[in-house]
Predict the structure.
Amino acid sequence: MHNRSDQFTKSLLRDGLSLASAAETEVEVLAATQKIDVYSVRDPARESERAAMGLLGELSAEPSLFEPFQGTPGLRQVRHCPRKQLTWHHELERRVRSAARSVAPDEDTDTPPQPAVAFPALVVIGPGRPETVLDAYRCEPVQAGVYQAVPGLAMRVVVLAELPRTRAPLLLRLLGSGRRFREAVADLAALPRDALEKSVAVPLLLHFGFDQQEPTTDEEDDVSAAIRAWFEEYTQQLRDEGRNQGRAEEAARAVLTALRVRGIAVPDILRKRILIEKDPELLERWHERAIVAASIEDVLPDLS
């Protein structure tokens, strides 16, 4: 009965539309292979890290596709993104259905209940204001530099040029170019050494060679020079830390080796304490004691 009704519906539409159109039924849709730039799913165990990410953390509060553009995207370019969004949601549903069938393969039903799969949000990021996109999708501003499309689309548009020069959108501001990028890097440099933004961005900036950009010849010279100076200082600090870490690891192994040769048992808690010690000079003093020690107390009198 269901199939008969379905066929009737399609046939009626086809024949009716054929009076004034070229109409077909059962038209196969071939989806070309597409790649989502970045797909993010919230991890409840890492809420503190997400909160520290500022605006980027807010935008990743729900399963989301992130689609950044180097230039300001037009409507034709952005239309590819909802296609990815819909196709990916269909794939997520397929995976859940497949998993449900594998758990209960003997259920005698042609139409198993459709598992609920959250529809992923879409975040489009571009340097400038995409007027045609904002108009076509009826986007409304929700905060500085962020626009929300009509609810059914689950789509937000981030305009990097309109983001305020504050810490909250810093990770996103680093996606900009020219002076905005330089300002973002300068703001990054001013953060505390243990800032989450530095742990994320600095290794990537160094890896991709942004510390070796040629100096500009316009009004951005001062900003560029400050950034290069900071990169040089930071890179040297990383090298020094790497050398110290290698020296500490080697010294810790030497302490444990000396204790083993002396036949001295090392409790697990003290073994871990030796291995996590970062001060090479302290470890070397422990090593000197271990060479002549009769017990672990002779090596670590304050810890044993």
User: Anything to note?
Assistant: The chain has 13 helices and six strands. The longest helix spans residues 221-261. Residues 93 and 116 are 8 Å apart (CA to CA).
